[in-house]
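Sample A.
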Amino acid sequence: MGISDKPPAIKSPLVCSQRLTLTLMAFLGTLFVYVVRVNLSVAIICMVRSDVTVVNGSLSNVTNVTSHTDDSCGGSDQALTADRLREDTGEFSWDKGTQSKLLVMYFYGYIFTQVPGPLLGNIFTFSISGVLCTHGFDNGWGSIFYLSGLFYLLWVMAWFPVTSDTPAKHKRISAREQNYIETSIGKSSVAKVLKVPWLSMFRSGPLWAIIIAHFCNNYINYTLLTSLPTFMKESLKFDISQNGFLSSAPYLTQFVTSLAGGVVADKLRQRGVMSTRVVRRSFQAISFWGSAVCIVLAGQMTCDQRYWAVVLLCLCVGFMGLNRSGYTVNHLDLAPAYAGILFGITNTAATIPGMIAPLVAGAMTPNRSAEEWRSVFYVCGAVAAVGGIIYVILADGELQEWAVPPDVSGNTGMTYPADGKEEEGSHSKDGEESEDCDIAHPISVTERNQLQTKA
């Protein structure tokens, strides 16, 4: 029985199913990860006194600061007075360098959990944190962290009782749903990976294309995640209550472009309009170069043109959403059997910008002027432009020779489940029946790529 002759799965209702519960829990987990990642970016605005400068290496307070006295782009007098009161009564006298170091601390812990082991979160956090900063308890900023931690803790308490490693181990799954899942994807759709080809991986040009693209994308992403609220305040002169909502707007745009881009990319491949390689290169090039142009233009906007700056930032982050059809899924094209390992490698490298970007932004904006913020965005634009060039040159969309794992019998070849049933007389090495893998037929790299092309 061939690949296409696999018996159809008996459908199980999605509503009230355990797979829907798992999807919801994974969604909430990802959301809270991003809540914890970006909440300090907004909270720090109302935590720190804004009238702090550095004189002869020591902190001092000043009463005449350009960013405070320039009312040409401000809102109502009442709003400006309220903002200044919050700024002047901030609890911490941290200079720009100290603030930047605090913003990178998350990434020092994050980088060590990649190899061993999104968007709505950004929208939610930026929007709610701005409101809490103004109206929350414990001086506003404290409520951001208390509520973030509380909801994350509730999620953890719910995760363990409602999830399991496999359908067979789940305590509440119905027999029909378990059969549907196991029939649809198999107990093991790919042969066990016996050896990871580390040397061949790191010699692979297409893998380096993903590493560099991931790094460059995250440099822009982390610059905006950690510094966008500060830019909105210092350069565009938005008050705190507006800041959170407007900082979330670009990520709402990215949510839309990510979904739309994925649909378009898949249609282009399915209909044979473009090969996987061309789709990945094209979408990533548009993502990088479009965001580069928009972020540089956003930096040129004055506070009198601040709403145009928000539009350009929305377009910038919207273009970045197209990377979901570029390097983000390219791991699966190159090496489906090792996709998790590859993502761990590229995401580890891509965490480094989180340690660098906030420090660079802080070092380049000591006086908090619009001209200094333009320089920050010039750097982001250059990183994106270079990343696009390298990816277009090195990227591929086909299964790599080194990515074909040996099957359980020791033969080399990609394996696919045949008919979901074990062949009579099939035994493991120790004579016991093998329960780990369905019977599968090896398939060569050439055959695999031909199947992808036909699909």
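Sample B, a different protein:
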Amino acid sequence: MNLLFCNLKIPADLLISIVHTIVLSNQCRKAIILKSSVCLHTSPRSCGSLVILAHHPRNQVQEETSDCQTEDMYLVFFPLVVLAFHLLSPTDSRIDSNHVSYLKPSYGPVPKYNSGKEVETKSLDELYADALREGGRVILYAGGDTPGQQDYFKMLFENRFPGVKLDVIVDYSKFHNGRIENQLANKNLIPDIIQLQTIQDFPRWKKRGLLLKYKPRGWKSIYEGFKDPDGFYTGIYVIVFTNCANRHLLRSMDQVPRDAYNYLNPDLRNKITITYPNDDDAVLFYFKLIVDRYGWRYIEQLLQQNPIWVRGTQEPMDAIGANRTVVSPAVACPLVNSLDQPHYLALPRYDPFVTWPQTAAIFRNARRPAAAKLYLNWITDAFTQQYYWPYWSVRRDVPPPAGYGTVFDYPSQTDPLAFGRWMSDREQVELFRSQITLYIGEVQGKPSPGILGIYPEKALAH
């Protein structure tokens, strides 16, 4: 095997060593390693980056080193391109032993990135035309609690873009991520785009080359912490889990519980509905924050209130809306209270509350990438963010709801990036889950989204 290293100013002996490592790592049956086969090429066509080329095995090693011809050569061991940035140096040709790790195989197959333009420049109407030409359909796997939980956004999207059908399949994010892994294993990936609570999945899928590198319009307006700097995934809206009360069932608004100790009011016994924290990681994180503040004794006292435990965070909201319960401590109640609805959100006075960016990505092998791009651009569009989403936006150029600061203006009570960091530490997540299960028991009841199976392409009937 004859290797060509271009634009490298490092000792030939070191090059031979690297060549030898590459040959061994690729398990070549036969190779000839000669100093005469190593060539330093400095012509303008070398483009200033590491290029590792090899003759087809049938060719003989060339003794000539003067012109570095590249006929019949092909790129090998592309993951070693990372090594270039550590070897290329105009002033120092040394390499230390720590760089040996870069000679190891990459985490997974290297994707053929659609790098192109950095940020989408097409208008929504142009993207709409692309989606129509593609076939007019997109499949979205969305984290959520009930089959129809995303119907509002489905209606808005399809009204804005007639002829493009948005099939939204809602399930707990912890089920969708397992479903996606199984589909990938069976080479039958269904969704074109995903939006999930399991934030820890996106860096992992990025490393495996499964996500499309794509930055929608308005990318620069999205808060830095909410998006992948390389453009493989982004937050699409901020979700808030905090107190929600039924204003019609309380004698006065002074009774609305704001902090954890307010839920220990004897008047609220049998009137508190809570999503199983061992079933929903965002609710679990809320209880982690509360236990860190008050200790496990608080959980013992809360249990004396005989709360109603349910599956899914939609059920407490539905129970409040139907006057079946009075309060819930960790649900997505709209920030702006409406007088024609019983739901009343009350941020804590002192306690923490949970916020995070629900995160989305397009799969690199999506069957309908044009329609997926249309959806991602629409959901992150400033108009959509300001007028259709009742919480904080992921964009810095969209004002917060009336009466509130930005999501970053409550640093002593919420950090919208903390949930993602915690979710990435799966050992700590599972340890806390097992502890709280000792207090409240195992999850009971059927999953609120229903049973979707392995390859759902449409929402369950609802």
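Observation for Sample B: DSSP finds 13 helices and 13 strands in the chain.
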